[in-house]
Amino acid sequence: MSTLASELKVYKPADYKAEIHNDWCPGCGDFGILTAVQMALAKLQVPPHRTAVVSGIGCAGKAPHYMHTYAFHTLHGRVMPSVTALKLANHDLTVIGVGGDGDAYGIGAGHFVNGGRRNLDITYCVFNNDVYALTKGQASPTIAKGQKTKSMPEEAIMDAINPILLGLACGYTFVARGYALDAKYLAELIVQGIQHRGSALIDIYQTCPTYNDLHTKSYYSEAVNGQPRLYRLEDTDYDPVVHNPNDPAEIAQKKAQALLKSQETGGRLALGVHYKLDVPTYEDYLKAKIPGLREKPLAELDIYHRDIMPNLRELM
Ligand code: SF4
Ligand code: MG
Q1: Do both 41 and 112 map to the same domain?
Q2: Structural domain range at position 66
Q3: pTM assigned to the model
Q4: Structural domain includes residue 284
């Protein structure tokens, strides 16, 4: 396809779908997340050749294989380093990280922390099913103390990580939660995450019918004290946006609000955007330091014949 033809094409979700056999278990929540990512890219009309999807190890790690975009299936827990390298090499790409809860918050925890505070313009979708599903369902960092799935020989003996709290603490500037079996709404959140200029974390409740018999479709669908377990923050008076990014007091207040919301008791679970702060990205910082990057991405610069090395050295 010529460049002109590709620019004129109207992309549909199917245009982001690879023609390859999918071997996720029937009924897996991963299907909903994959569909939501494809819907979001179509909604934004991001050309497949301008998109890169990166995964770590786990069932979720297979997601890029099923995408008709650039893709990279990296080492366990190394989504963030690969996402970072891709974005620094070509800041014009739409870069999406995908991976499981064990990959993001366990094996890759150090990278997750420092990737967030760098505030690169990326979107990280975490498929959170409470288990290391690819290796037969061992407890992951998001399963609560005392809980036991059918795949675990004993109850979990440690407290769970709270992904929303962790994301806030690490400096992600867009923190949201979705649900895999509501692909339409999840796609809306992914659209917002991609549109956000900065590091976007979307933690996604993902059902794993093979190993997790606690957090099932029925669990997420059931009522709690007569109200749906899952609800949307935008249906309440919750406002996640920091309206004055130069006001440290407002930033603190919005973080405190999200901190409380993420620890809501009573069994109800909030979906939607918990926190959003618009501040300069890491790429903005680099463009200020390296004038050549304001014209084109590093991957397209003729670094051998342009004098950008002094600027690069300054950053090292
Ligand atoms: Fe999905 Fe669980 Fe099967 Fe993995 S083991 S494909 S997470 S249902
Ligand atoms: Mg998992």
Answers
A1: yes
A2: 3-279
A3: 0.95
A4: no
Total domains present in the chain: 2
Per-residue confidence (pLDDT) for residue 289, from 0 to 100: 87
CB-count burial class (<10 Å; 0-12, 13-18, 19+) for 298: middle
Report how far apart, in Å, the C-alpha atoms of 259 and of each of 255, 274, 287 are: 6, 9, 33
Q: Do residues 90 and 109 lie in contact, with contact meaning Cβ atoms separated by under 8 Å?
A: no
Q: Residues with Cβ within 5 Å of ion ligand 2?
A: 100-102, 129, 140
Q: Are residues 267 and 152 in the same domain?
A: yes
Q: How far apart are CA 179 and CA 170, in angstroms?
A: 22
In angstroms, what is the span from residue 180 Cα to ligand 2's centroid? Answer: 13
- The arithmetic mean of pLDDT across residues 212-230, rounded, is 96
User: Is position 94 within any domain?
Assistant: yes
CATH number of the domain bearing residue 161: 3.40.50.970
Query: If you average pLDDT over residues 54-81, what whole number do you get?
Result: 96
- 142 vs 154: CA distance, rounded Å: 16
| Calculated CA dihedral for residues 100, 222, 188, 144, nearest 10 degrees | -30
Name the closest-CA residue to atom 7, ligand 1: 208
Q: How far is the CA of 104 from the centre of ligand 2 (A)?
A: 9
Q: Are residues 208 and 310 in the same domain?
A: no
